[in-house]
Amino acid sequence: MDVGGSFTSSSKAQSRYPLQEQPIRRRGKNLDRFIPNRSAMDMGHACGWLATMCEENPVSSSPGKDAYRKQLAELLNMNRTRILAFRNKPPTAETPFLQPSSWFHQTKPVKPRRSILQTSERTLDAPEILDDYYLNLLDWDEDNGPVTSVNWAPDGHHLAVGLNNSEVQVWDTTANRQLRTLRGGHSSRVGSLAWNNHILTTGGMDGQIVNNDVRIRSHVVDTYNGHHQEVCGLKWSASEQHLATGGNDNLLHIWDRSAASSNSPTQWLHRLEDHTAAVKALA
């Protein structure tokens, strides 16, 4: 009974721990299975990199040398951490793998959006204009240009208007109509005007000063030459015989009406050169 009992207890003990009696099998390392692809490797770079890593006492380098080495590696495409290549790189696609519709949307140029100001660029005064939404009281002319000068005649009924296109208009303010347009006196804008009875004197950006008789067809009667830049101011004397002119060339001239001549370079009576800026205000 004791033998049987001991045999039974030992067999039970062996059956409880069946894994302890089984030997553990360990697999060996197969290091010869991973053979690199020599055609895809840079053997010179690999040998140099391995030799540098295996040095026991590496030579200490300065920060400048390290920066130079890093820049040189980027330029020569040597900034690589993988030394062994086990497969070839996949070929790059010649055309993008996109659907025709999506490719069209990707390559379509984007038009720049037009910037529209939220406020008006310029506000002009329009007195006595009828404020009615359903009326159209404004229109663009074919030759739009700014008004460059205005001057009232001594009678208070006629107005001279200088334009940017070298023309001068004479208006009758009583009848509210344009009487005539003076052309041919200047080659650029008319920036200054002065009345002397029926003589309208105009000064332009071309440096010319012209006396215009508004009563006759050929209105140009006298021309004054003395300014090299734009004429900024005109003023007749109370005697109506002398004209003061100021220009952007910092010069002030006094002219005699009876000695006006377009051929004489020294036709002025007086010439003042003490100004350091444009002469505009005259009295």
Automatic annotation (TrEMBL):
Component of the anaphase promoting complex/cyclosome (APC/C), a cell cycle-regulated E3 ubiquitin-protein ligase complex that controls progression through mitosis and the G1 phase of the cell cycle. InterPro entries: Apc4-like_WD40_dom, Cdc20/Fizzy, WD40/YVTN_repeat-like_dom_sf, WD40_repeat_dom_sf, WD40_rpt. One of its GO terms (molecular function) is ubiquitin ligase activator activity. Residues 1-14 have a biased composition (Polar residues). The keyword Cell division applies. Residues 1-30 are annotated as: Disordered. GO terms for cellular component: anaphase-promoting complex. GO terms for biological process: anaphase-promoting complex-dependent catabolic process; cell division; positive regulation of anaphase-promoting complex-dependent catabolic process. It comes from Kingdonia uniflora. WD repeats lie at residues 140-181, 224-256. Residues 141-197 form the Anaphase-promoting complex subunit 4-like WD40 domain. This is Anaphase-promoting complex subunit 4-like WD40 domain-containing protein. The lineage of its organism: Eukaryota, Viridiplantae, Streptophyta, Embryophyta, Tracheophyta. The keyword Repeat applies. It comes from the Eukaryota. Keywords: Cell cycle, Cell division, Mitosis, Repeat, WD repeat.
